[in-house]
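Continuing the batch. This is chain 6 of the set; chains 1 through 5 are on the previous pages. Same settings as before, nothing changed between runs. Recording input and output for traceability.
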Amino acid sequence: MTGQSNTLDSLFQKRMSLISALSQANADCLRALQMQSGNSVLLMMEYPCPSTAAAQDQTDDDVDACRKRIDTLEEELLQLDRKIEQAAQEEG
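Output for chain 6:
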């Protein structure tokens, strides 16, 4: 039983690490979305700057990358939660 408890503890530690990474990815995505919105406003001006258009393309890529990272982390968290549930059932 002690081995299973250690396994469960290890899984919960991994879960906390994943949640921390997911939180950071969400914060990164929010920053990228803010930049994207700011660039969109600048592009609506009468005389848009070419560097703003390039920055908008970069922030679009950043937002996409953040969303992919969040999706990956959420999938990893789902798989880990399934392992935790299985380990808890085996322990109980």
